[in-house]
Amino acid sequence: MKRKLLFLFLLAPLLGFSQFNQGFEGATTIPAGWTVINGGDAAQTWAVIDFTGGAVQAHGGTNAMSIRYGATAHNDFLITPSITVTAGVNDQISFWGRSRDPLYPETIAVKLSTTTADAASFTTTLAATVAPPSGAYFVKYSYDLTAFVGQTVYIGFQSTTTDQFVFDIDDVVSSALPACVEPNAVTATNITATAATLNWTSAATSFVVEYGVQGFTQGTGTIVNVTTGTSTALSPLASNTVYTAYVKTNCGGNNESAWSSVNFKTLPTPAPNDICDTALPLTIGATFESNPLTGTSVGATTSTTIPSCSSSAQYDVWFSLVVPADGNVTIQTDQAPGSENDDTIIAAYRGTCAALVAVPTACNDDNADEESFFSKLALTGLTPGETLYIAVWQYESIFGPAVRGEFKISAFNASLGTGTVDAPKFSFYPNPVTDVLNLSYQNGISEVAVFNVLGQQVMQKTVNENESQLNMSALEQGTYLVKVTSGNETKMIKVLKK
């Protein structure tokens, strides 16, 4: 009994040191001992997210702690349980962080309180700006707490951004500071199709790097010894491939740190320079749909006159289109089945690849009439027979990085209408149609016109009723655009004639 009591007596102080390894698993509620303070945007704050089945994953397990963008500024803290800092027991704090979207980079600060877990008490800054390269992969960050040995502290992860995207935190660990400290904040930058630069922070001067395709067995990868600086070039690499790079500190003799690691993906092989020759053909009445749709990228084109109408400097897919006889054309993008992607930006250019210039009103990144999910660009007064080059830039999924190019694109005559008929009040059937197409609109139909894929009118009927039957039996098999007019309102529908 005395031995048991002595063991418990010796163990009791250790139990108060609050060592933990928090992966936020098991539930989507805030773990016991943790605190969230929402001091900014009321709609969004730190929350546990289950990534099961999502486009991106947690660092470990299925859950992570996340904070999403808000229209107004955050001032939100995620706070650890109290840590009674003891040398060789819990004098280091580490976590894995991720900012999901490179166009809207989220950052956080890491702060420390020596008193209480309220926002005003976090007066010590361990890192003013934690900014991992944005994307699907996490970066590990570690901080030395030896200056606080003997004190009880709280660690606060603070977000103060406005209208960015999402920051994720996972696998927060309170542990002993090792004798040989591993490199901190390992990242991959300057990523191309064949190379990348590995970076880290450390007070040491000697390191070992090993890298290979994700999933490789350590010991079989490429080894690089670094004795100057805290970065090294990795090449040659395969394009469009996920790599894992490890780096550890060499503290002399046989004393080495644990490995730190990072995953990154190389870029696809650049598309050919001449987008004019490799753009995908698009014709009036045609619809392209693929999941994903792959095409040519502006990449290394020699053109220096392409204006940018988005925050992206590079369009994902290019199409070529011959302007119809009336000089009017509308380009529309819609959501592809199964895609999580959010929206597109479309732009139109004329000329040669060396001197592409935007046509008037050539850019649209939102469909103002909200009748389609993505974007619509209506162009009028063009030169019949000239070739336009249509550039499409694809936003990534609002749920995380996704494969770009998941959209539908179609072209039709702008003069045929822009679709302002109230959709819930309008119906038509059957489609495909063999003989008679039935049309119904609560506000009344004044006229119906049918156009072939070349934009030529092949039928017209005056109605002035709420319902109408359109006899299409004399038309050849194929796709037709039916323009329904109700006063000043129009509706364009696509009908397949069998």
Topology (elements, then pairings):
Elements lengths: L1 H14 L4 E3 L12 E4 L8 E4 L12 E6 L7 E4 L3 E2 L7 E8 L8 E6 L10 E7 L8 E6 L7 E8 L6 E10 L8 E6 L6 E6 L5 E7 L8 E5 L4 E4 L7 E8 L10 E6 L9 H4 L1 E2 L5 E3 L27 E6 L6 E7 L8 E7 L6 E8 L11 E4 L7 E8 L12 E6 L13 E4 L6 E16 L5 E15 L6 E9 L2 E9 L1
Parallel strand pairs: 20-22
Antiparallel strand pairs: 1-12, 2-5, 3-4, 4-12, 5-11, 6-11, 7-10, 7-12, 8-9, 8-11, 13-14, 14-17, 15-16, 15-18, 18-19, 21-28, 22-27, 23-26, 23-28, 24-25, 24-27, 29-30, 30-31, 30-32, 32-33
How would you characterize the overall build of this protein?
Keywords: Signal. It comes from Flavobacterium endophyticum. With 498 residues, this protein is mainly beta. A hairpin with a 6-residue loop joins strand 29 and strand 30. Helix content is 4%, strand content 43%. It folds into four domains: 156 residues, Sandwich (Jelly Rolls); 82 residues, Sandwich (Immunoglobulin-like), CATH 2.60.40.10; 141 residues, Jelly Rolls; 72 residues, Immunoglobulin-like. The longest helix is centred in the first third of the chain and has 14 residues. Strands 1, 3, 4, 7, 10 and 12 form a six-stranded antiparallel β-sheet that branches. Strands 2, 5, 6, 8, 9 and 11 form a six-stranded antiparallel β-sheet that branches. The N and C termini lie far apart (91 Å). The protein is built from two helices and 33 strands.
